[in-house]
Design goal:
Distance between the termini: 64 Å
CATH topology: rbstp2171
Order of helices and strands: EEHEEEEHEHHHH
Number of helices: 6
Number of domains: 1
Shape: flat
Strand content: 15-25%
Helix content: 25-40%
Radius of gyration: 21 Å
Number of strands: 7
Largest sheet: 3 strands, antiparallel
Strand order of the largest sheet: 1-2-7
């Protein structure tokens, strides 16, 4: 019979809470004193990320070129569908604690009734949105580390190479 191993190493209290990671906001965001605020990002668990992604998965009926349903062995064929954009927006909303994109005052300011519009409203410039998306995804371990250089420097460097 196998010996019983100590499992306490896998019983971490820290795994029961989600860590808050800070990162500088895009340069275009300054507080009333001219200081650059920090984004606060909740490190979502693998289980939470799976739950979010599952909300954006569905099945649709597979069709041929004439839009007729495909049938195989007497059964309709289904194809998996995934709304990657919707899932990414929802992940941003869930992960960002500051600014809270579900805040009623912030949503009213931007005229949004649906929180999924908020990331693109608050970070309306392409470089702001790209930066925030990269920072959040890197904090969640879903992307490579964020390049610390200014996005404009990266763009200039890319044009010159």
């Amino acid at each position: 019979m196998a010996e019983k191993r100590d499992l306490r190493a896998f019983m971490r209290e820290s795994s029961k809470t989600e860590e808050i990671i800070t990162a500088p906001a895009p340069e275009s965001f300054r507080d009333k004193d001219g200081n650059l605020p920090n984004l606060e990002i909740r490190a979502l668990s693998t289980l939470k990320l799976k739950e979010i992604r599952d909300k954006f998965r569905s099945r649709g009926i597979a069709v041929d070129n004439k839009k007729n349903p495909l049938v195989a062995n007497g059964a309709v064929v289904y194809k998996p569908e995934y709304d990657e954009h919707g899932a990414a927006m929802y992940i941003l909303i869930e992960a960002l604690q500051y600014p809270n994109l579900r805040d009623p005052e912030l949503m009213a300011f931007y005229g949004c009734l649906d929180a999924t519009e908020m990331p693109m409203r608050v970070f309306c410039k392409q470089d702001e949105f790209t930066y925030v998306n990269r920072v959040v995804m890197a904090a969640l371990g879903l992307a490579n580390e964020v390049d610390e250089r200014d996005p404009h420097d990266i763009e200039t460097e890319a044009k010159n190479s």
